Amino acid sequence: MKKAEFVDLVQKQGGYQTKKEAEQALNAVTNAITEALTKKEDVALIGFGTFTTAFQKGKTGQIPGKPGQTYTTKDKYVPKFKAGKKLKEMVESAS
Length: 95
What we know:
Elements: H1 3-14, H2 19-38, E1 43-45, E2 49-56, E3 60-62, E4 70-72, E5 76-83, H3 85-94
Antiparallel strand pairs: 1-2, 2-5, 3-4
Helix pairs in contact: 1-2
């Protein structure tokens, strides 16, 4: 589902009058989550899931198809999402 389709769904589910209002609401949520994660704060939405940041150590590896050439990545923080129980159950029952 692309963002435009998702905005339509948010408009319908949230009872927004216009797509612009729905998009503003969606942007507010994603921006708030992003801001919290950049401050290394967790965002827990009970029943839906938890957004966290995790430290990922750098690694070295071999470039596929190029013998003898390697790459190295730096240590970094990455976003993680763990689905909540209710979300898992709803997705499972939909199949």
